[in-house]
Structures are given as C-alpha cells and as structure tokens.
Amino acid sequence: MKKIKSVKSIFLITALSLLMEGSLSAASKKKKTNKKKNSEPVVEQEAEAADVSGADFIKLPSEKVERSFFQKISPEILSGVQNGSPEALKAAMASMRQKKTEYDDAEKVLAVVAAEIMRIVWPYEKITWDIPEAPNDNPYIGALETVRHGLFDSSTGNVDFLATLLPAIVIMNSSSNSSVIEPCEDALVKALAMQPDSVLANYLMAVLCEKKTVFDAAEQYYSTAYNASPKTEEIGLAYARVLRINGKLNSAAEILGGLDVSSNDIAVLKQNAYIAFDSRDFDAAELYVAKVLQQTPNDLEFLLFRAKILIEKNDYIHAVALLDMYARQENNSIDYLILRARVQLDWSKNTAAATETVEKALQLYPDNTDALMFAARIASETDAPVAGKYADELAASVLAKRPESKEAMSYALDGLVHRENWQEAYSVSKSLISDSEVSPSVVEKYVRICLKLGKNNEAYEFARARHNSNPSDENLMQAYVLAYSSVGSRDAVIKYIDSQINTSSQKMKSYLYYRRSFLQLTEEKSLADLRSSLISNPRNSDALFRLYELYYAKQDYRKAQYYLRQVVAINPNDSSFKKLNEALTKLIQ
User: What's the rounded Cα separation, in Å, for the pair 240 and 206?
Assistant: First the structure.
C-alpha cells in the first residue's frame, strides 16, 4: 500500500512539473509573438504567468499614441478642407460623398466645418453638399459656435491645423474689435507654419492685416491666396481693394477684369468706382456710382460718395443737395463731416462754419487722419488754432501716421512760418525741396526761411537754379528776385528789375515794383513804387501791407488803417491781419 502511495506522489510531482514548464513556454512564446507583431504587450497575461512561476518581472510603461480626430478620413479629403478655398472644399466634400456607408462622427464634423467655412468666409459661393447633424463634444464645432458670437475660442488645444485655425475665422465678423486681433494673429501664424499654402489661412491673415491697416502685408497674403484661387470672387475683390489702397490702380483694375462675374455685380461696380475716383476720372466714377444707386437706391455710403465726386467736379449745388439728403438719416459720420466742411470752406467761404464742423469731427473722431489734415489746412490758411492746435501741431499728428505725406508737411511748414519758428521750418522745408517735384510756393517759403536765418547765399543759389530751370514761372521768378535782393548790390538788383518790368505780366510787374520799393533811398520814391504796384494789381496785399507799415511808422493811423482794411478784405481768413486791424482801431479810438 505504501508503495502505491509513493508511486502516486511521484506521478503528481512529475505532472505538476510538466504543467509549469508548459505554462512558462506558452507565456514565452506569446511574448515573442507579440514582439514580432509590434503590438501593445498584454499586461494581464504577463502578470498571470508571473504569478504561476513565482518569478519577478519589471513592467515597462506602454507609449501613449496621439490619435487625430480625423485619422480615418482620407488625407486628400482632409487636405482639401485645410486648403479651404471654395473649389477645394467642394472637391473634398464631393469625394467624401462617394462613400457607400453612412458618415461616421468625424466625417459629420468635417462636413459641418467645411459648410461653416463656406458660409462665413466665402458667402458668394453655394454649399453643394448636405450638412449632417454633427456631435458637439469636439473642439471644431465648439470653435465655430464661439465664432458665431464674435468671440475667439482659446480652448481648442491647437491639437491640429483646423483646431488652431478655426477660432481665427472670427476676424471675418464685421464687428470684430481689437481684443480679437492679437489671438487671431497668433493662431494664424501657427496655422501658416503648419500649412503655408492654405488659401484659407493666407486669406484670413490678409483680412487681419487689412483691419490693422498694414496694407503692404495684406497685399502679400492676398496675392498668395489669389494666385492659388484666382476665380474666388471674395479674394479677387479684396486683393483689388488693397492694390487700389496701395496705389496700384492698373493692377487693381486688371484683377477685377479677370473675375468670372457680371460687370454689373454690385461689389465689382463699387470697386471700379473707387479705382476711377483715385485715378481722377470723375466722370467714370460717377457713372459707376449711378449704376450702384440704380440697384440699391438706399445705399448711404454711395450716396455720400456721389456727393464727394460732385465736389471734386466743383458741382457744389448738386453736392449740397445730396449732403442734405444724407444728413436726414446720418449726420455724424466722419466722411459726411469732412465733405460738409469742404463745402463750407471752398464754396460758401464760411471759415467759421467749416472750423466748427471739423472741430465736431475731431471731437467724435480725435485720431482720424482726414479730419486732422483738414483742420491743419484751415489752421494754415487762417494762422489760427483749430481745436486748440496750430497747423504744425495738427500736421504733426498726421505725419506720425503718414510720415511721407507732402500735404501734411506743407501745412506743418505754414504753421511754423506763421509762428516764426524758423529753425524747425528750415528742417521741414529741406525735406520738401528734396522731392523731385517741388511746388513754386515751397520754393518761395524755403527762400524766405533761409533769408530769415541769414542763409542768404543758400537762398540765392537755390532760387537761381529753380528759376533757370523754368524761367517762365512767375512764382519762381519772384523767389529769385527776393533772394537776389538780399545778396546783390542795390544798383545791380534795380537794373535787373528794370530790365524785367516792361516784358512782365501785370501781376509780375506789380511784384517787381513792390520789391523795388525796398531798394529806394527816399520815402517818396518808395511810395511811388508802391502806388505803381497797386496800379498794376490793386489786390497786391503785399504792397498794401507795405503802405500800412509806412504810414503806421509815420503815425498816420487813419491812412494806415485804410490800407490794412484792404489787406483784411483780400485775406479774410488770416487772423493775424484781423488782430492788427482790431489793435489799430482801438489805437485810433
């Protein structure tokens, strides 16, 4: 009996040994098989084998694999949506629609994303696919929902191109303010780094640059988008608009002509109207505006634009009628206020009303460049502050934004001359005369400033060179005579003036008599020259003012005021003459 038990024990021990070896062998084979297939290790089975054997194993952590939300969608389809042009979106959706099975969640989301891009960014295009119901628990639909509310969604995680780009579509919202500019720009920079040839990303960045008024950069991004999608109307119109703003009018017209749309399309008509206006073809501009108003008679923007064209054509009567019509619905827009001020100053000659209007414009729009420029113009003509600032101060605000503006520099120069700030006036005038085309009035101011600073030879050499280059220009001749009078001998200057008097026009003859009056040795001869000057040109305010100075010096105040009042009548906007007349009136009283 003991022998039988012993045999059974041996058998059981042998069987248990074989069973353990089989388990270890199976676990070992399974591990090798898993390694060959490069699949994730089955941790639970390894643990069981370890428990059976009683051996110690070190568990290695499995690598976490990031999976794209759209990983099951064809790369060609996904790439088309990321490109974002209308044709790419339509092609991608057409390809996805060819599936025989129903859309999965990722495909539904992509179809909705493509439709929203088309609706928001490319409104002229038709959506050519059915839009399914898509799940909301993903960053893509969430970002688009936030865009609808005019906000930037910063919670997408930027996990891929679309999650990074979609929040920036809010830049297309017309009411988008400066608070979304910075996050949109950051998102678009990242998106373009991922996919620099995306039409959508380049177009959105161009829109952003245009909103920031960085038009050179906007032109570059629009150019990239246009070259990739030249038939997209929104891109062509925007590209033409920025080309026009950048002064490339022929290129802008060429882009518009290449669009596959009707020539009577409202957007195309408007752009052509602006291009014609900037080209100073006011008749063509008015024709385009008329076509726009035929289709949309309540378009206030183009009603005002028509008034602007009529003002440029000096048709003030019809322009005022349009301004009055516009004012019944809107009388605080900056464009309206500027045009109203122009009519008051140039047509009605009502400087006080024009000043009041432009001051209202500056109160409502303190940083508006056009309002600042017009205020600088009034201040330069009146030698009086507008909105508390003189011409040079107002022009300085314009030059901070438009440093190359010759018009603003000219107004700044007038203000500095009026305030007798000769050193700064000299610096500004030097900048103006460095231009290839210098107006005779700037030449005259530069000569006068040089003489005030004692730079007589510089004034003479410059005036002589300009006069020699265009001897028929009377303003240049006046500048030359003024400079020559400061460096030449008295006899030589009088001889030159006498040689020119008989062959000059009445206006120039009047100036020559006026300049000769300064060279006469007796008061009697000076007065005779000034009377001859007024016989040639009774409205020569320089000669009249010179007579005022002579009689004022003799304390003959009534005669002095007689001539000063004529100066005031000829220069009604110059406040300095008015102040002198008021002081003289008090003195006489």
Answer: 12
> Is-contact 413 387, C-beta < 8 A?
no
Give the integer Cα–Cα distance in Å for 26 and 543.
120
Burial of residue 459, with CB atoms counted within 10 A of its CB: 0-12 exposed, 13-18 middle, 19 or more buried: buried
Per-residue b or e along 271-310, where b marks 16 or more CB atoms closer than 10 Å to that residue's CB: bbbbbbbeeeebebbbebbebbbeeeeebeebbbbbbbbb
Does residue 22 surpass a pLDDT of 90?
no
Residues 6+ apart with CB under 8 A from 500: 477, 508, 512
Alpha helices by DSSP H, 402-473: 406-418, 422-433, 440-452, 456-469
Note whether 219 and 229 are within 8 A (CB). Answer: no
pLDDT tier at 67 (50, 70, 90 boundaries)?
Answer: low
Residue 386 phi/psi, 5-degree rounding, is -120, 130
pLDDT digits (tens, 9 = 90+) for 378-414: 999 988 899 999 999 999 999 999 898 999 999 999 9
At 175, the pLDDT band (50, 70, 90 cuts) reads low
Tokens representing 143 are 């970002």
Nearest to 151 by CA among 185, 184, 109: 184
Residue 389 β-bridge partners: 386
Helices (H), ranges, 85-138: 86-97, 105-121
| Residues 144, 152: Cα–Cα separation, whole Å | 9
Q: What is the chain's Cα-based Rg? A: 41
For residues 424 and 483, give the distance between their C-alpha atoms in angstroms, rounded to a whole number: 20
Confidence of residue 586 (pLDDT cuts 50, 70, 90): very high
Share of the chain above pLDDT 70, in %: 88
Element housing 10 (H / E): helix 2-37
Closest CA relative to residue 184, chosen from 224, 144, 153, 162:
153
Q: Is the Cα dihedral 466, 471, 473, 477 positive or negative?
A: positive
Residue-wise pLDDT tens digits, 269-297: 999 999 999 999 999 999 999 999 999 99
What does the CA dihedral 154, 158, 161, 163 come to, rounded to 10 degrees?
A: -50
The amino acid present at 55, given as its one-letter code, is A
Question: How confident is the model at residue 47, as a pLDDT?
Answer: 37
Tell me what pLDDT residue 55 has: 38
| Residue 546: both structure tokens together | 């010179």
Name residue 416's amino acid.
Answer: L
CB atoms near residue 562 (< 10 Å): 14
Q: Tens of pLDDT along 483-501?
A: 999 999 999 999 999 999 9
Taking CA 264 as the corner, what is the angle to CA 262 and CA 265, rounded to the nearest 5 degrees? 70
Q: Are 399 and 415 in contact, with CB atoms under 8 Å apart?
A: no
d(C-alpha 526, C-alpha 514), whole Å: 9
Largest interatomic CA distance in the chain: 168
d(CA 505, CA 510): 8
